[in-house]
Design goal:
Blueprint: E1 9-17, E2 20-24, E3 30-34, H1 36-45, E4 51-55, H2 63-76, E5 81-84, H3 90-99, E6 103-106, H4 108-112, H5 114-124, E7 129-136, E8 143-146, E9 151-152, H6 157-167, E10 171-176, H7 188-195, E11 202-205, H8 211-219, E12 224-227, H9 229-232, H10 238-247
Parallel strand pairs: 1-4, 1-12, 4-5, 5-6, 6-7, 7-10, 10-11, 11-12
Antiparallel strand pairs: 1-2, 2-3, 7-8, 8-9
Length: about 260
């Protein structure tokens, strides 16, 4: 008897800067696209499988204010929340779980303080720890990036995946910096490379411009597709995305 096939997930990805929902291009300049609480409630009503909320304020991030926003979102949404951005300690993770997060997303801390990731996983379970991987193929900043894309890490993708597994991460969020905000499709080559090396669930982000891009991502090995610009611009939403996927033979959660 084989393993059951996991249903694919559609996850709106929301970026916060100065308490507002924004969209970026290649992790650079951002534009305001609305109120994060109202947008999250709409996504919840539109059958999103999860919501992912990342604070990109960087070192200036105010965790008290961030936690308040997360709490407001959690109080009006009825889907799992994955929340991250600037987590540097177990206390930071505690604050977000208390605010209503179901999972936390870690990135920079996994490179220089993996024991923090282990502590969070031991306390809340590996399934509650999503490890973010930001990757760029640009000659100006090639490889794995941390600190919101500002720092190049001197470790290979394969080595970092092993380190994340050993630290206790239970899920991977793979983002292409080069494709962020361009709506030209996910980096399928990178996606296939990572999918071939891990057994844990894999979320892909960065580049979705149409529902066909989600189909391509699932065919390449993604378990979930995170979408930002796709849902911020135009008349697209998670409900329509899942109807399209179902019609294309992709197994998705039912409404």
């Amino acid at each position: 008897m084989g393993w059951p096939v996991l249903k694919r997930r559609v996850i709106p990805l929301e970026l916060l800067r100065n308490r507002r929902l924004v969209k970026t291009v290649r992790f650079g300049a951002s534009r305001d696209v609305g109120d994060p609480v109202k947008s999250s409630q709409v996504y919840s009503d539109q059958d999103a499988d999860e919501l992912m909320i990342l604070n990109i304020d960087g070192p200036s991030a105010n965790f008290r204010e961030f936690g308040q926003i997360v709490n407001r979102i959690a109080s009006c949404c009825f889907v799992p929340l994955s929340v991250g951005g600037g987590i540097r300690s177990e206390d930071h993770a505690d604050a977000l779980f208390i605010a209503g997060a179901d999972k936390v997303v870690v990135n920079t801390v996994a490179y220089d303080q993996p024991h923090v990731v282990t502590a969070i996983a031991n306390k809340y379970g590996s399934q509650a720890v999503v490890a973010g991987i930001d990757y760029s193929g640009s000659p100006h900043r090639p490889g794995l990036l941390s600190s919101g894309g500002r720092k190049v890490e001197k470790v290979s993708v394969g080595e970092h995946l092993t380190n994340l597994k050993n630290a206790g991460a239970g899920e991977i969020l793979l983002q292409s910096v080069d494709r962020d905000g361009l709506m030209e499709g996910y980096d399928l080559t990178l996606l296939r490379e990572v999918a071939a090396q891990i057994s844990m669930p894999l979320i892909v982000a960065g580049g979705a411009g149409g529902f066909t891009d989600l189909v391509n991502a699932f065919d390449a090995g993604a378990d979930a597709a995170a979408c930002g610009s796709l849902f911020n611009f135009g008349d697209n939403n998670p409900l329509r995305a899942k109807a399209f996927l179902k019609n294309r033979g992709v197994l998705v959660k039912q409404t």
